[in-house]
Amino acid sequence: MATPHLSLIERKERWARKVRAGRADSQASVSRSTERLPPGQHLTQGFPILDLGIKPEIALADWRLEIGGLVENPKTFTWEEFNALPQFEDVSDFHCVTTWSKFDCHWRGVAFFTLAEIVKPKPEVRHVLFSSYDGYTTNARIGDALDDDTLVATQFDGKPIPRDHGGPARVIIPKLYAWKGAKFVRAIQFVAEDEPGFWEVRGYSNTADPWTEDRFSKVDG
Ligand SMILES: Nc1nc2c(c(=O)[nH]1)N[C@H]1C(S)=C(S)[C@@H](COP(=O)(O)O)O[C@H]1N2
Ligand SMILES: [Mo]
């Protein structure tokens, strides 16, 4: 069962050699930004789009965000209800595991801790599972989900999040690689037992810390 992980690591190593070779002439700018740019990342000015080839079209009238699992007070929000919650803004850097980073992303939406306050997770909760309208799933430790900059965003740079970037609403967990942030989010479940998501079962790290280049799941050998 370790084979898919190994093949991903081999691919990543090949790709790292290629990236290193191509980057030799830009070392100066790379080292200037090391304090803000996690290791192995490069800065992009654009905003690349990463998805599963499915960009679900969700009419706002049909949109729901279902929050449940091990909570005292499960709740399904309509778009109107969700937007009536206290609003939260945060500017953060975005780090994709495929090595691009984008600085100063301005998100607005509802802080994750606000949602947790409403549904009241039980003490045994350790993880959070996210599911999306395109079938995507991802997981996070409760501590990362409850970090003070995690949010379910509905706006990017002062405008509704375009469908390409995961609108109507997407999760942003700024301190983790961006695949931990579910675009087109549909449901959030508080759980005791961890459950790896779409990329996590395909060899990507469960914890996803850009600052330690925690890109791939650890395999023996
Ligand atoms: N629902 C959903 N969320 C997702 C993905 C996806 O394919 N589907 N891709 C992830 C990955 S790998 C990244 S890097 C970011 C990309 O967000 P962007 O397309 O807005 O750049 O979304 C993450 N969230
Ligand atoms: Mo990504």
Shape by Cα distribution: globular
So what's the CATH class?
Answer: Alpha Beta
Which structural class do the helices and strands define?
alpha+beta
Rounded to the nearest angstrom, the distance between the terminal CA atoms is 13 Å
Major sheet details: 6 strands, mixed
Provide the CATH superfamily.
Oxidoreductase, molybdopterin-binding domain
Please tell me the total number of domains. 1
Q: Based on DSSP secondary structure assignment, what is the total number of beta strands?
A: 11
Radius of gyration: 18 Å
- Please indicate the percent range of residues in DSSP E strands (runs of 2 or more): 25-35%
Taken in chain order, the helices and strands follow as HHEEEHEEHEEHEEEE
Ligands present: ligand MTE, molybdenum atom
CATH architectural grouping:
Alpha-Beta Complex
- Percent in helix: 10-25%
Explain what this protein looks like in three dimensions.
20% of the residues lie in helices and 28% in strands. The protein has 221 residues and is of the alpha+beta class. The protein has a single domain, classed as Sulfite Oxidase, Chain A, domain 2, CATH 3.90.420.10. The strands form two sheets. Strands 1, 4, 5, 8, 9 and 10 form a six-stranded mixed beta sheet that branches. The radius of gyration is 18 Å and the shape is globular. Residues 1-12 and 22-33 have low confidence and may be disordered. The ligand Nc1nc2c(c(=O)[nH]1)N[C@H]1C(S)=C(S)[C@@H](COP(=O)(O)O)O[C@H]1N2 binds at residues 47-52, 96, 132, 134, 136, 165-166, 178-179, 181-184. Molybdenum atom (MO) binds next to loops.
